[in-house]
């Protein structure tokens, strides 16, 4: 994404809104501001922002309602910025379609990094033929996975899991979401399946299973895969 894209800030704390506006402006992003759910809906419809930074505790309602409404009609990236740290709140927001979740108090530099990463991911969300992350690459045409330029042998399930993780790189993926996507409806509670295959993948792609570089654990929530580079191939 190019600079000067419009970002909608939905936040009822004026001090936080000003901090976000100044920080985003320094990186070339234009912003709009809404301090209520009602105003946020109006701003979203009127200005079609490229990304939304969303607080959940708004004076006239729960911010998750906006996630639900936006997801009915678009894939506009949403980063939740909230003081709610409960696991159920984080999972609920991600399950509704939020792209990321940052808890308060927060680091402005970290949030900006999340914004840039999310916008890069959206920019490249074009069904690439190949994804690369560090020394690991996956080719969707040949279904080959390479690590340090050597062919990696994976089972069909390991390949399906790795593909899903890499296609959603740098995004927090709840356990149940991964299980449903890879194994199908009815497997959302089969946590042991997921742990077993995550451990198996880590043994094959990580230098150290105790300090993973590719598949990191989001405590009590799920997993996140490192940032990938997209390749469309020859046209």
UniProtKB/TrEMBL annotation:
Modified residues (4-aspartylphosphate): 55
Keywords: DNA-binding, Phosphoprotein
Gene3D superfamilies: 3.40.50.2300, 6.10.250.690, Winged helix-like DNA-binding domain superfamily/Winged helix DNA-binding domain (1.10.10.10)
GO biological process: one example: regulation of DNA-templated transcription
Matches recorded under CDD domains: trans_reg_C (cd00383)
GO-annotated molecular function: phosphorelay response regulator activity; transcription cis-regulatory region binding
One of the record's GO cellular component terms: protein-DNA complex
DNA-binding region residue numbers: 128-227
Protein name: Response regulator
The organism of origin for this protein: Sulfurospirillum halorespirans DSM 13726
